[in-house]
């Protein structure tokens, strides 16, 4: 019996074979995911490079950079410079037209300093992002942890309350809704964060920044940049025009006006686009000059976002950040249309009064003589 040749495999050998195959499959799947992620990141980086070049061409033609949302979508403003497919990131599932406009920051006429302009935070399971700084080369960065009211949030999230950054910096407001655009770690571990205050929001935002952090608060009127400080933003509307008042309590703040006017008591002068450095005890009040809204492009974007929300919900995917984005655009559009209607009513009322006065004067010429 001992000299007979054994046929087949033992159970142990079969189990070892399956174990080896599972390890090989795990390695193959992991490698394929890395290859796919790298390919998607490379494609997104090329998209952002093309958008960066198109933004520069737009400036050469118009002598200003595209405003972006909520005035218009970036894809609509640049449609004569690059193709529509460039605006879709392969990691942005169910997106039909524009993956990048919500992460674009308008900076007036100056992007010469090292400043975030546009990015995409979706890569490597949202742990890495691709960003354009100062319209130069695209860079990949590790995304930093951001917590809002004790819950971690991702870029695109909207919140009130307290936002806490990875280095301990806090941004606090009980009434103003804030949208996280990006928070990334630069070379050497420095943190760079951009937070947007959407149009239609009013109230105060208080910042306590950790020394060394780079933080920017984008409002409809200014970009307020932190250099290790404490400051308060008072945001609101006056005569239906958005304004931002910046008060520095500690440290230094660089305020980039987005055009508009600088208000000092009763005097008003053009704010321009050059950064204004404020130190402790200083303040500045910037009132934006309203730009025309491209309602057709905004409406189209809202329709696409609603479809995206429906698609997410159909597969059980969280759609809250897309809803925040859509709500911002819808509220802004509703406000602007209401203001246009009010302006039209006032114009018609004035025209009607003028016509009535003219009719009275024509009927009784002596009525106009005092």
UniProtKB/TrEMBL annotation:
Segments of skewed composition (Low complexity): 355-370
Tagged with keyword Membrane: yes
Domain of life: Bacteria
Chain positions covered by the region annotation Disordered: 340-370
Segments forming domain FecR protein: 163-253
Matching InterPro entries: FecR, Pilin-like
Keywords in alphabetical order: Membrane, Transmembrane, Transmembrane helix
Transmembrane stretches, start-end: 12-31
Protein name: FecR protein domain-containing protein
